[in-house]
Amino acid sequence: MNLNHLKALVKVVQTGSYKEAAKHLNVSQPAITQRIQALEDYMKTKLLTKESEGVQLTSHGRTIYESSLQILMIWDRIEEEVWGTKVKGRLTLGASTIPSEYLLPPLLKTYRNVYPDVKLHLRISGTSEVIKWLRDRTVDVAITGIPMTTEGVMSFPIAEDNMCLIIPIDYDWPTTVEKLTMLTESDWIMREPESDTRRTLEAYLTSSGIEVAKLSISGQVESTEAVIAAVEAGLGISAVSSLAAAKAVKLGGVKVVDIPEFKLHRRFYCSYLYDQKNQSVISTFIQFLHNHSAIQ
User: Fold this and answer.
1) Superfamily of 88-159+267-292 according to CATH
2) What is the rounded CA–CA span in Å between residue 25 and residue 27?
């Protein structure tokens, strides 16, 4: 049992569903299910039931839910009392575009509340450049879509994401596409070749038997927002982070097409130099990410 299990229970109860809890905690729905199951196994009792009106707490579940609220509140207070006023300095983060735009903002807001005396500086670029910054020691911590395997560098996962297919709102496509091969029949908007998103997509398509070289690429842009804008304009289709797609769909500019065969998951990682891990500002940020990680 760990704090992530308690957070999962609390969020499921607060949102009323496993799906919404997964969105709030930035993990997959199966991850929420696994955490609830692990907590039930640990407590040796059923905590939740699924009724027609939604998820409901059992009597034991109610007790554990209320206690979980108190435990999480106490833990937040402990973090603030132990670290909040003692850590001072400047922390420079390097991040690729997706984590910088969609993952880091809420995390950094929480971090600033706990460590108000740390001055944060965020640099944003493609993964290759961010990795170079870390090696050159021009950033203290790197947040990217791939782990670093260089000697002397430590990496650990902090969040999960799914990629989804987006098309213009007026595209004459069914909301569910049966075959991946339909992807070869449309123009594509792609990120730059150095992008994590593009490399992940191309590797997945290749492993699924689609020749990437034969795709019709009508445009290449350097940010996820530019990809979405191009799709909105009707220039083609694309695959983007579900975090980015959710915002675009809500604004009504694009729609998501479900392809049962298209299951593309990835993780985001924190990387840092091993010989800097004991520096107070860096070590507390790393511990903060461990404590708030969406991955067990």
Assistant:
1) Periplasmic binding protein-like II (3.40.190.10)
2) 6
